[in-house]
Amino acid sequence: MIPEDHPRYKSLVMREHLAECARKGIVSLEGLTAHGRGEAFDYLLGEKTTDPALKAARTAAAFLITAKKPVFSVNGNTAALAASLIADLQCVSGIDVEVNLFHRTEERMDKITRFLESAGVRVLKGTAERLVPLTHDRALCLRNGIFSADVVFVPLEDGDRCEALVKMGKRVITVDLNPLSRTSRTASLTIVDEVTRAIPHISHFFEHMTLMDAEELISCHENRTYLKAALDEIAGRLKYALD
Question: Which of 87, 179, 195, 216 is at 20 to 30 A from 206, Cα to Cα?
């Protein structure tokens, strides 16, 4: 039992949930390590959504509004952490959802698909093909899903696939707590925030944004601005941490 007055209550509950999802085969053991690395960066950001991250989330909504075919690429960690939030975003935006895994087995694909569906997500299904120029299984995707998308939303992403998708001409939105990661630096748009904070912001902005506002946001978009702001936030917190 985790007491609700524990100062780390939310974080500890999330860890327990991920551990349970790992036992069920939804999250890989490697995914638990990745989550811990993200938490370390969240400490440095103050475990809150910064103003630049909020602006990045608004820009993400703009990318989705102007997209012809947006697709949400979901891995095990994202499914475990945010299934109901993905359902909410799909409800307001109509975004397609496709499961895509590095540690891929048909059993895990099926478990994650059913887990998402139990939260109300409509998941694309079909025969995956090796359509992304990578040598591992994240190259596998659906021809009517990620392959044909013009905008791909991929939280908690592998850097090499992010880079490959960008080289294929796609706009890639990611959520990554590490502003120095290859994913953050390669993506078209990086939201430096925790995924369960970022997705609801995107849903909110999508519902309250016009096409004209979206086009204006995108016209002045520069991803390096968000990354630099995140690094400045971390540097400032480190500088005054013991004051």
Answer: 179
The parent domain of residue 135 ranges over 51-237
Task: Identify the CA nearest to 44 among candidates 225, 238, 239.
Answer: 238
Give the pLDDT confidence score for residue 66 in this predicted structure.
Answer: 98
Structure-block tokens of residue 160: 């090499």
Which amino acid is it at 161?
R
| Residue 11: closest CA among 184, 229, 177, 230 | 177
Half-sphere exposure of 210 (CA within 13 A, CB side): 3
β-strands 151-153, 70-74 pairing: parallel
Q: For residue 140, what are the contacts with CB-CB under 8 A and spacing of at least 6? A: 100, 104, 128, 129, 130, 131, 132
| Cβ–Cβ < 8 Å for 86, 199 | yes
d(CA 241, CA 101): 38
Asked whether 53 and 106 are in contact (CB, 8 A), the reply is no
| pLDDT per position as a tens digit, 21-36 | 999 999 998 889 899 8
208: three-class secondary structure by DSSP: coil
Query: What is the phi/psi pair of residue 140, to 5°?
Result: -80, 130
- What are phi and psi for residue 153, nearest 5 degrees? -100, 115
What's the total number of domains in the chain?
1
Q: For position 104, which CATH number holds?
A: 3.40.50.12640
And the tokens for 128?
Answer: 């995956």
